[in-house]
């Protein structure tokens, strides 16, 4: 896929102009995150962010990594930490946002699966409350 994107960038056509995440999971390696940049470069990451406020999000992801390394956190705790990163890096005064999540892993039979929106909303409320309590 990265080679295909790179060929377009070299001049066959207009560049794609978007970055893409490819997620995978297998029993030997575990989870993997790859990011294909619009230039065609492809790298494997533990956690990564693109777009507006990407650097702030990467910093928050690194904090989680320093605390937990690659420990086997439960699904709910992983969702909470991802929501925390998103809420921490969101600009103040932003309204009308909606967090949608999905995951891939052993519990999902190695197939990408969307996370129930009501579960995400409930955990977002919990994380928001925890963040407010920490500020006080």
TrEMBL record:
GO terms for cellular component: proteasome core complex. Residues 117-136 are annotated as: Disordered. The keyword Transcription does not apply. One of its GO terms (biological process) is proteolysis involved in protein catabolic process. SUPFAM superfamilies: N-terminal nucleophile aminohydrolases (Ntn hydrolases). Keywords: Proteasome. This is Uncharacterized protein.
């Amino acid at each position: 896929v990265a080679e295909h994107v790179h060929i377009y960038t070299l001049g066959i056509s207009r560049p794609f102009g978007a970055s893409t995440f490819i997620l995978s999971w297998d029993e030997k390696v575990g989870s993997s995150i790859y990011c294909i940049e619009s230039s065609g470069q492809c790298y494997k990451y533990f956690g990564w962010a693109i777009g507006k406020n990407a650097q702030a999000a990467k910093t928050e992801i690194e904090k989680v990594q320093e605390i937990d390394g690659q420990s086997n956190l439960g699904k709910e705790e992983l969702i909470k930490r991802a929501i925390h990163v998103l809420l921490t890096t969101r600009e103040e005064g932003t309204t009308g946002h909606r967090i949608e999540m999905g995951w891939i892993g052993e519990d999902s039979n190695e197939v990408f699966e969307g996370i129930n929106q009501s579960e995400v909303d409930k955990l977002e409320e919990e994380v928001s409350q925890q963040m407010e309590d920490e500020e006080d």
